[in-house]
């Protein structure tokens, strides 16, 4: 299978690329290389004859059409997106442009390509729309996790832009017959994540002996999933997902933000005792506007129908992630957003 991965230099994207190549598939990456990209994560693939990289924007019709014409993919995994809630609050237009207009452009190009395929190739073609749990809004503390039947109720510009992209993907499936599969992932963590997100941001702060800012009381609850498990789920959906269906990719690992940050501090106390105890750097800052209180996903459908389950326990995965960042300090220290760092922004 030759898979076109948009946003393949991003955090989840590069993990998906590595897994596809490990499983003997071929990959072409289309990526604009924005601030959050980690092209270094793809360096080891550069010599492979099953891998190609195209520097381009999903919003550029000529670049997108060229990729389809040159590489003739068997499937599309669409991950290219702006994904940071704080940035969406400050500048929602960028999120509408990339997440909504960019998805529409990819769907349009995929449909033109799909219709021209011979019947046998058309039968196996897939368009995987990679979405988020945030489109469902916020759960109460005792509410059951979201399911595939949960209504959309986005509450941030980021979540709204992803919801709009999902609606477009469903419309292309229903109206044009494009074989679309949707996935909704929970909070994902692991190597190569940009330092604006909760775990790498807190690691960077603790490393420097600086305040580790938690929004509000830090009791917001999120479901956590290691990036390798998320990538494995996406490969499984490309191969086995039923067109027209959506699947929730959850880790069954609900934790409060404060619990996660405290676990980071304990691991740092063990592995890098300078500045210990690191927990003394945790501080509360004013909560962000419209902050959702809880997300949780029920992954029963993908577990039952596809056979996917997470392999990383959260405590094991977090420890490995902290260790990875400690051994790759040269990479992430160059990636720190100095302006966000100076404003003491929290993260999620």
What does this structure look like?
With 348 residues, the chain is α/β, with parallel strands linked by helices. The chain is 44% helix and 16% strand. The strands form three sheets. Strands 3-2-1-4-5-6-10 form a seven-stranded parallel sheet, with helices on both faces. Helix 6 (157-176) links the parallel strand 5 (126-132) and strand 6. Helix 1 (11-22) packs across helix 8 (227-240). The longest helix has 24 residues, at 92-115. The chain starts with a strand and ends in a 6-residue tail after the last helix.
Fold blueprint:
Elements: E1 2-6, H1 11-22, E2 26-31, E3 51-55, H2 61-71, E4 75-78, H3 85-90, H4 92-115, H5 119-124, E5 126-132, H6 157-176, E6 180-185, E7 187-189, H7 198-208, E8 212-215, E9 221-226, H8 227-240, E10 246-249, E11 254-256, H9 257-271, E12 282-285, H10 300-306, H11 314-327, H12 329-335, H13 338-342
Parallel strand pairs: 1-2, 1-4, 2-3, 4-5, 5-6, 6-10, 7-9, 8-12
Antiparallel strand pairs: 9-11
Helix pairs in contact: 1-8, 2-4, 4-6, 7-9, 9-11
């Amino acid at each position: 299978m030759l898979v076109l991965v948009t946003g393949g230099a991003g955090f989840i994207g590069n993990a998906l690329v590595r897994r596809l190549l490990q499983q003997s598939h071929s990959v072409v990456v289309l990526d604009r290389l924005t601030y959050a990209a980690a092209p270094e994560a793809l360096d080891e693939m550069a010599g492979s004859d099953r891998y190609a990289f195209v520097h381009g924007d999903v919003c550029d019709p000529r670049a997108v059409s060229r990729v389809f014409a040159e590489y003739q993919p068997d499937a599309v995994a669409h991950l290219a997106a702006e994904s940071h809630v704080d940035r969406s609050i400050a500048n929602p237009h960028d999120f509408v442009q990339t997440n909504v207009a960019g998805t529409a452009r990819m769907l349009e190009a995929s449909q033109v390509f799909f219709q021209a395929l011979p019947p046998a190739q058309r039968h196996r073609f897939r368009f995987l729309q990679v979405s988020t749990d945030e489109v469902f809004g916020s759960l109460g503390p005792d509410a059951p996790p979201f399911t595939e039947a949960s209504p959309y109720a986005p509450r941030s510009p980021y979540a709204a832009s992803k919801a709009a992209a999902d609606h477009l993907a469903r419309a292309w499936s229903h109206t044009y017959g494009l074989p679309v599969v949707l996935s909704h992932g929970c909070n994902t963590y692991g190597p190569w994540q940009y330092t604006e997100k909760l775990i790498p941001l807190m690691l960077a702060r603790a490393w420097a002996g600086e305040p580790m800012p938690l929004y509000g009381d830090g009791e917001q609850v999120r479901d956590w999933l290691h990036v390798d498990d998320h990538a494995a789920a996406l490969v499984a959906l490309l191969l086995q997902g039923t067109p027209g269906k959506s699947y929730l990719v959850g880790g069954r690992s609900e934790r409060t933000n404060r619990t996660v940050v405290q676990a980071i501090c304990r691991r740092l106390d063990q592995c890098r005792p300078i500045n210990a105890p690191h927990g003394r750097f945790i501080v509360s800052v004013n909560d962000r506007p419209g902050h959702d209180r809880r997300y949780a996903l029920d992954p029963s459908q993908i577990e039952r129908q596809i056979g996917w389950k997470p392999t990383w326990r959260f405590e094991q995965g977090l420890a490995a992630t902290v260790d990875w960042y400690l051994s790759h300090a040269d990479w992430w220290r160059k990636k720190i957003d100095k302006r966000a760092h100076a404003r003491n922004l929290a993260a999620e």
